[in-house]
Amino acid sequence: MQLTGDGVWGPPRDSDQATRVLRVAVDLGANFIDTADAYGPHLNEALIAEALYPYRGDLVVATKGGLVRSGPNSWTCRGEPAYLRTCVEASLQRLRTDCIDLYQLHRADPAVPLLDQIGALSDLQAQGKIRHIGLSNVSVQQYREVVQHFTIASVQGRFHLLDHRANVDVVRECERDGIAFIACEPLFRGHLSRTNRHLGRLTEKAGGASPAQLALAWVLHYSRSIVAIPGTSSTERLAENIDALSAELPPEVKHELIAAAGGW
């Protein structure tokens, strides 16, 4: 969800609306909220707690750490174990919880051995401060290295109709291993919410489903391992996105979507 300012930096333009979107999402049945300490930075986590704490019993709140910000659109890896431990402790406070449901390494720091970074999270998991560990923005090789030594619950990566090839192999690994793949930006930052040459002509064939619903349905039908996390700052778009969960893809529409995406 878009809960910060432009460039994922600073407060949202309308804090009340951001709070409203979070609460409506839960009211509509959403049970997974994803954020990161780098969003804002720190503001997203605090806003989620303000809007949703105490958390509903079945609600999973996931966050990420390992990136630092110096300004809008600036992202720098930092994966020293001591720093990651500090990140987790700070996220616990901002989210007002004593255990984070899913904590993801936002991006592997190339200057620090990957297993040391995940090892720090594993230590915190053993202390009861993290329930599950996830990866984000990893290659197949990095994924394989980690799962040989640690139990991983999820992998997050960019995945949408017009750009999915980079993570196809990761998705297949996740499906084989029974691990969730969290598809971020499934609507390509809103571009697939609008009528376009790939989706516009298919909406009628799909029973009036919107372009956004078609794009989300395609992502969700791609693999049983996929969980999609579309972002929005609109309650109307939110309801539309959630309805995509029940969208049916007629075979001819599915085939045309596959062709539009360049094949599986």
UniProtKB/TrEMBL annotation:
Domain of life from the UniProt record: Bacteria
Gene3D superfamilies, sorted: NADP-dependent oxidoreductase domain
Keyword presence, Oxidoreductase: yes
Keywords, sorted A to Z: Oxidoreductase
Domain NADP-dependent oxidoreductase: 12-253
UniProt KW Oxidoreductase keyword: yes
One cellular-component annotation, GO: cytoplasm
GO molecular function list: oxidoreductase activity
Protein name: Aryl-alcohol dehydrogenase-like predicted oxidoreductase
Organism: Kitasatospora kifunensis (Streptomyces kifunensis)
